[in-house]
Amino acid sequence: MATSTLIQSLDLTFSDGTAVGNTPSNRRQIETFLAGGTIVAGDWVAFDTTETGAARVATVVQAGIVATGNPLVVGVALVGADAGEKVDVVVAGLATNANVDGAVVAGSPLSAGAAVAGRAGIATAASIVVCGVALEADVANVASVWVYKQF
Question: Does pTM top 0.70 for this prediction?
């Protein structure tokens, strides 16, 4: 399902002085897909090519392992879902609880599905897809990341 991309104000207050606040949703785009299998919150997800027709790009699954990075990656799931359920996915912008490999530090370029399904690891010279960048070091394989828009 398509959503609108709105221009966001950089000001933290309205012209009358009322505070706007600074939230994780600033400059973030979320799309809703159907889960093609079990998805855990924070998983990097990819288009489900086992589907047919338009369902291939309306359905996502946990990003599968591709040694050079999964080119079908769409973004990071905000919530968990079972097959057939709706799942909200950050397709661009801040994802605060993304599943990543243990070696990730702030500034690491990320390639999803390179070693572990559903996780992003540090992109290498062989990576064909860089899907985002880590904004902090991982803690127990979870980190805040910036998802590069590919959808």
Answer: yes
